[in-house]
Amino acid sequence: MSSVNGAATARLARFSGVESENRYENVCQSQLLQSLWRTLTRYLQLKKDREAARAKAIRDGLIPDPNRKTRLEEAFNLVGTCEDMCPEFEREQREYQRAVDKWELNPVTRRIDPKRAVKTFHRPAAGDETPLPSDVRPPHVLKMTLDYLIHDLLESNSLEATHHFLRDRTRSIRQDFTLQHENGLIAIECHERIARLHILSLHEMRGVQDFTEHMEMEQLRKVLQSIVEFYDDSRYSNTLPPNEPEFRAYHLLAHIRDPDVARQLERQPAHILDSPIVQVALDLRSLAQRNNITSSRRAANTEATQNFFSRLFATIRQPQVSFMMACLMEYHFADIRKGALKAMKSSFREAHKAFPIGTLTEMLGFDDETQTASFASACRLELVLDPASAMPVGVKLHSKALFDGKLSARALGCI
């Protein structure tokens, strides 16, 4: 710690040696140096106090002793005691390390604001120490934190501006639930709301620079997996979560080509399996299956499927398909449309006329003919142009037509 103090002193001395002829600048510089010194002093003191706090927590049996083997029957759950959205030690540490997000700054002092700061996600690594109870937020604080993120931050700012911050901080909320092995009603409610946020992001952030759909879907699938496990655990306590059918349906659509997820759903009680939203999800899954997937990295083909892609998009337009379900299905559109064009290409002969682009737009659920033409071009299909307007009026779909189905779903989805 002496080396740290020495480095900090040298840094402050370097700044102190800078003189300015402007009296106002000298005052501001002095205040800045005092603020930096207070932050450093507070951070080093808290860091020192943590050693004593960790030893006491081990003695009191609040966290396991890393130097002692623990038998399974002696295992216990960590109970968080932090009443803030961000623990005090992390606030001071991140301010010292200049790792404070703009959404956490006090607009007047430009320092970290305890009322705005939210605990960051910490990726687990080998050799990490067990978090102290004071580092972990209990369920009611986690719910309060999520309320702040959604009702205060997101309602006052755009999703595009806050998405990165929200994604990291909601991961941290999930992490604190996991550390405490919490699976009660508060944990279920918070995970459900986080899942809805990810589904909405898949739609609203589509095509935004630096947004990666597959990473968003990866987090959504992790949240949904936790939710269905919570639902399974709730059966032992005779608890019936009110939104279980909705999120069982989302789980199925997120894994639309995974037969194991469908089998798991079919083993659910009748009140889940027979619910309208689950039945709609099962219909969508059935219509989305393909039998012309050639890449070994993709899910296996569904034998004997009839490639009902036009019925799929017609069904999605129906009122029984909720907005959230449509947002989730949108993630699969590029892949479904590639399969549809591939199936149609195999069905027509070269002698046939070009397929009308207006009909194709309706069949594949595009918003307009421009989108259809762009998608077909991305698949290397040849367009037929109107001689007068030079606008595309047809797509050449036949067995000998050039077709590139290897373009990523993300690239096609941005068209």
How would you describe what is shown here?
This protein has 415 residues and is an all-alpha fold. It has a domain at 336-413. The protein is built from 17 helices and 3 strands. It is elongated, with a radius of gyration of 28 Å.
Order the strands across the largest sheet as they lie in space. 1-3-2
User: If you compute it from the alpha carbons, what radius of gyration comes out, rounded to the nearest whole angstrom?
Assistant: 28 Å
Count of distinct strands = 3
Structural class: mainly alpha
Mean pLDDT: 85
Helix coverage percent of residues? Answer: 55-70%
Write the layout of secondary structure elements.
Elements: H1 2-16, H2 23-59, H3 88-96, H4 139-156, H5 159-179, H6 185-204, H7 213-234, H8 244-254, H9 259-266, H10 270-273, H11 276-288, H12 309-316, H13 323-330, H14 333-347, E1 355-356, H15 357-363, H16 369-378, E2 383-385, E3 392-395, H17 409-413
Antiparallel strand pairs: 1-3, 2-3
Defining key terms:
415 residues; mainly alpha; 17 helices; 3-stranded antiparallel sheet
Describe the structure concisely.
With 415 residues, the protein is mostly helical. It has helices at 2-16, 23-59, 88-96, 139-156, 159-179, 185-204, 213-234, 244-254, 259-266, 270-273, 276-288, 309-316, 323-330, 333-347, 357-363, 369-378, 409-413; strands at 355-356, 383-385, 392-395. It is elongated.
